[in-house]
Structures
1.
Amino acid sequence: MKERMTELQIVAVIESTIRDVLMDVELKQEITGVNMMYDFIKDEVIVDIARVQKACQELPEPMPLETYLRVLTIHELGHAMDRQALLDSLDRAKEIILMKKQAAAEKRPTDLPFITMVIEEHETDIAFEETAWANAEILNSFFEVVAGDSFEIVKAHSLSTYRAAYEADLEIYNGFIRPQEELLSI
């Protein structure tokens, strides 16, 4: 759908959705390249206005931008509901970021400890995403924010991006593991 909303209208939809589910989380606009995200350290939802409009057009089925915004907002609030677990994961996330910085770029595709860490990071991200979607589903069923079919379309599309990246790296990981398992079975 080629519907256009102004920046103020987009912000108004997100803020009203936050209020509609009785949560108190700040909204911040920022150019991040990511449609919407939850900053668990600052306890705020961040929206990239240009990216969120483009992302809505990338859905497999057309959807009004307002509906898309409401679904994304309750998803990000689903992360807010899981804030303590996100905060608890911070030390490990910092370790992984540091290890990624230290890993030589040319050796990454052939470095088993590096790819093992990447798989762990994917699994953690997917678990947090699934939890946020489960929490968003609770919010949606309780507050009736959007129709269930729209919710499911956005959820499936969002999770598919995380799973596709995971599957690609898992293939690399399995390429390491299979030869080692074959050697062990000899």
2.
Amino acid sequence: MTAKRTVVVTGGASGIGKQTCLKFARKGDNVVVADFNEELGNETVDLIKSEGGNAIFIQTDVTSMENVEALVEKTVEEFGSVDVMINNAGIGGAGPVLTQNMDLYHKTIAVNQHGVAYGIMAAARKMKELGTKGVIINIASVFGYLASPGTFAYHATKGAVIMMTKSAALELAEDGIRVIAVAPGVVDTPIIQGYKDKGLIEGMAKKVMGNRLTQPEQLADAIYLVSLEEASAINGSVVMADEGYASFK
């Protein structure tokens, strides 16, 4: 039987993050739900506990290195280790390149890029300190590879996540720490509500093999799979969990 691990999920209160928290908890791991939204974060914890799982909520602003470091410290205080760090927190873009909302541009960079960087650094430092052969999983996107109109800042951040994953994996390999990115396509989460409001979802779904939006539970399954010791040969890679979205454009 696999030993119980401690898993931290940023953006764990909703969407892919919430389903990922549920997946790991149902597999018997300790789960830390990290999110800025206290109400939704505690709802996720309550759901896990109602199913017999073990979870806590830690309110976290991933745009603050100090906040992310505190998240890791509190996790270790509670459970004694951090074995899997999932840098999932993310927001949508800031509009077309010529009409960027600059406040939203900087916020997108702060959450999607800096938040992942802080998660990598804080978790890796603690894993090395504790001698933990851990796994860091960053949520990238097909839009780290493919351009689409109106999401200039989002593309920039997801491209950065891909390269940060490769760079960190190279440096941390000697410490036995794996770093992987999982790249979703179009996932049915609140982040695409704007596309729904504009009536664009049917067209987006047609770009997915199977002609439907990917469900967040499917991403949670993929994230769980690459976290396992049986996936130890996967390191520094981007695992495409996009149902073929990037394969036939």
3.
Amino acid sequence: MTKNTICLWYEHDAEAAAGFYAKTFPDSAVTAVHRAPSDFPGGKAGQVLTVEFTVCGVACMGLNGGTAFQQSEAFSFQIATDDQAETDRYWNAIVGNGGVESACGWCKDKWGLSWQITPRVLTEAMAKGGDVAKRAFAAMMEMRKIDVAKIEAAVRGEASA
């Protein structure tokens, strides 16, 4: 086990969530599934209690803890993308698998976990600061899924189409 692992709370389907992440994102895998040795709040002996997995190389553990806690936007995975095709692929995988769109490149998967699908062109524009960042930020504020071409146009100072 790594020194620092992100623990994510699921009602009862951490294994399904981890499997989805493993097939959707590179450098991701389900590495272990552990069953409960006895009954626990929200589950019975023998049911999956925890799932160890990675998402883009980040160590995670899914805990099937029942309904006591819910996911919130206070935690999200931010996935950097290189182009529109990669942005579309991840966004469509999450939203198309029972997820929900939100604003500014955010979406939620069907388990309630928030994701930021963020093209590098946006991050780089924000890092430049000044007018470039202002224009990119203004363009982003009108989007759900990030449109790379519109961010690039904003960076160049061109009016969006």
